[in-house]
Amino acid sequence: MALSAAHAFADTTSMNCDSAVPQRHIELLPGDQNSASHLQLARKVPAGSAIHLDICTADVVLLASKSDQIEVTLDLANPPATATAADYVQNLSVSASETRLHLHLSKQVKGRVVIAVPAATPRLEVNLVHGDLSFQTDRIRGDRSINLVHGHLDVESNADAYATMHVDTVMASFHDRRSGQESHGMTSREITGTGQGTIEINVVMGGVELKAWD
């Protein structure tokens, strides 16, 4: 089952999510904005580069950028006195084949992240251990995969944004506001669309809500 990806991410990452500021973090570039509670940065993504996002604990909004850049805005409601927001970005690497972002955020800092990725991203994978995720997928094409261990997932998507959508849950509710379908607990659903690309959704605990994109 595709949920093995979410389980594997939880096993390897969630045990570290409540730890202190990571020892390794990114080097800032001219133009980046950074303070104790706020970070804003952008990096150009080569055409054809897949994007891989790993996030420990945060509320996340994921949407399409209006450029060829990955844009990250991070706000901390409870920042520590001895670190800046950028210290929680453990990795941001860009190559022709893959762009990787790892946000090592703990529950204590109460992070909120807005990430915008190029609309033409061919493959997007999002791993979130704990938090709520709003995914405005209608303008992001290609193959998209979301693994959420504990939290609530809102997916804004019309049928023309994908060829197939597959949703797996273990201890989570499922609501498709577009069709009125719902279920609770362990479920597996295959939804056929009229567009291109695939959407894979795996949620262990929490809820999934599908909404029409306006």
Walk me through what this model shows.
The protein has 214 residues and is mostly beta strands. 5% of the residues lie in helices and 55% in strands. It contains one helix and 14 strands; from the N terminus they run αββββββββββββββ. It has one helix at 4-13, and strands spanning 33-34, 38-44, 50-57, 59-65, 69-76, 89-94, 98-103, 111-118, 123-130, 133-136, 143-156, 164-176, 181-192, 198-211. Strands 1, 2, 3, 4, 5, 6, 7, 8, 9, 10, 11, 12, 13 and 14 form a 14-stranded mixed sheet that branches.
Task: Give me a quick take on this structure.
With 214 residues, the chain is mainly beta. 5% of the residues lie in helices and 55% in strands. A hairpin with a 3-residue loop joins β1 (33-34) and β2.
Spell out the helices and strands N to C.
Answer: HEEEEEEEEEEEEEE
Structure classification: mainly beta
* Gyration radius, rounded: 17 Å
Estimate the global geometry from the Cα principal axes. globular
Report the major sheet.
14 strands, mixed
Helix content: under 10%
Uncertain residue ranges: none
Number of strands: 14
Report the mean per-residue pLDDT as an integer: 89
> Helical region count?
1
